[in-house]
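FYI - complex with D-MYO-inositol-1-phosphate, inputs then prediction.
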Amino acid sequence: MLEVRAALVREWIEEATAYIHDQLDGEIEIQSKSNRKDLVTSVDKEVELLFRQKIAENFPDDRYIGEERMGDTPSNLAGGVWIVDPIDGTANFVLQQNHFAIMVAYYEDGLGKLGVVYDVMNDDYFEATAGQGIKRNGQVFQPPFKDKILKDSLIAVNGGMVMTDAYKVQELVKESMGLRIYGSAGIEIIALLKGEIAAYVSPRLQPWDIAAGQVLANEVGIQVSQFTGEPVDLLNQNRVLVAYPSAYRRMIENLKGPR
Ligand code: IPD
Ligand code: CA
Ligand code: CA
């Protein structure tokens, strides 16, 4: 059954990608949401509508959580729940036309079953099915490293956190080999899977920013938790650390501490 869902997601993402490429050649309508940097475009909305409709047609009993709020806003995770970010990295989409992702996750009773992160412009497709590992562009994929330590690695941290030194994060950056900021949680998860960075830290991830990445991370022993060490809550905003085990152990010391 999971394979059926995974195959359908591949089809839907192919359709969404064709639409996105088409729109990039024309006029895209851009609006601000909570502040001038929080953008949404007509493309985010159309892509979310596509997923919403496909899921409702194929799996009418499943529920749906999506960034652009075309979902059911469930108050629990019982049964089959899809969690979709139609374009992750909308600012990159608008300002760079690159470095953004489509992210689709499917959970059953709160357990991650399918997670897909697709780097649209670089045509790089990461798919995890629970217990069956990861495929990258259809081929079995393992990160090149089982573990990474902070001292020898680059790390990705949310820019605002670095600027305010929240949770003594500057100490972690100094201890590492350096800081990278990609502007899309999905692209940062891909960088982690490829072993390019040891950790990704964000104080403000919504369920759709982390649901798919968490399924991918779980399949290869990359750790995901809130700063408190508790599991991510997929019904609320979270402070999240995603990291290889050794980097995780070092970084959670600071992140568990006072803001
Ligand atoms: C955002 C990106 C960004 C992260 C923000 C997210 P959006 O998603 O993933 O990297 O720092 O917290 O909201 O709004 O572009 O889908
Ligand atoms: Ca988004
Ligand atoms: Ca997002």
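The two ends are 44 Å apart (CA to CA). The longest strand covers residues 80-88.
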